[in-house]
Amino acid sequence: MTVPIELDGAQIAAIYRYPVKGLRGQELAGCELTVGRGLEGDRGYALAKPAYHQHFDASRQQSENDAVLGAWAPKRFFVCGVSEPKALTYTPLGAAWRDPEAELPLMVEGPAGRFDLRQDEQRQRFASSLGLDEPLSLLRNPEGLGFGDQVAPVVSLANVATARWLAERWGLSEHPRFGMHPDRFKNNVWIDGLAPFEELDWITGRSRLRLGTVELTVVQNVGRCGNINANPLTGETEVNYLQDLAKLALERGHMDNRRARPEATFGVFALVTSAGHLTCEAAASGP
């Protein structure tokens, strides 16, 4: 059973996808969302560490173009902001979203220059810029479902008011709209016009909502990791904001709906139940 929710006056403030897991995202003008899939191209590629190939049967992996086809795995097997905070300073270049035939961008730019992640030698120089002395391989999911932290093809939603509330609490002014840089959290869709933490009430009863012409069902909160401690502007790990977020969860009763205990959380995951087009400033409402 699902419960419709009312979002009077709310609208979509921003849409982000993250072509390469662990790196910065791209802000999109709009996108199509399809039932049974997440945001197309989100975490479409990942940079795997040698442990990935040791853990999974390398003989069963196939190559296609310049990437290895690989299965989903937990984040510890990939470059990510928790273990490689400097990765958050690299931005994917090119591939305008308005061109649906464009390939996902695999040229990235950051403090150490530009690197084509499809090229072995450049990819290893990129690894060195992160402080890694182990080879990285470029992976693509053969089913096109991406390498998000969830196996299920979900879309992550964030509340702009919650981000601003936390930014004020933590004394951050990294972003003109959100207070803190969105790449600390890496949510796909940011909704404005809500009260702080209102989105966490959607988890109870598997709430239904409409974003533009898309309908979704909220399935769980987004448990957070140390990525939020990494500054995307500097690539340095800072104050333990994760610890404070966990403290807030205990004080405010933000429950992990999977384990029935407080958890450091920001945003919610949702499944697309009715396909449609999503654009910034589209209205958010209950079906």
Helicity level = 10-25%
Whole-number count of domains: 2
CATH domain class name of the largest domain: Mainly Beta
- Average pLDDT over all residues: 85
Profile the largest sheet.
9 strands, mixed
Radius of gyration: 18 Å
Could you name the ranges where pLDDT drops below 50 across 5 or more consecutive residues? 96-101
The gross shape turns out to be: globular
CATH architecture of the largest domain: Beta Barrel
Key features of this structure:
alpha+beta, 22 strands, 287 residues, 4 helices, 31% strand, M1 Pyruvate Kinase, Domain 3
Explain what the structure shows:
- The chain is of the alpha+beta class and 287 residues long.
- It has two domains: 3-37 and 150-285, M1 Pyruvate Kinase, Domain 3, CATH 2.40.33.20; 45-140, no CATH class.
- Helix content is 14%, strand content 31%.
- Strands 1, 2, 3, 12, 13, 14, 15, 20 and 22 form a nine-stranded mixed beta sheet that branches. Strands 5-11-7-6 form a four-stranded mixed beta sheet. A three-stranded antiparallel beta sheet has the order 8-9-10, covered by helices on one side.
- The relative contact order is 0.21.
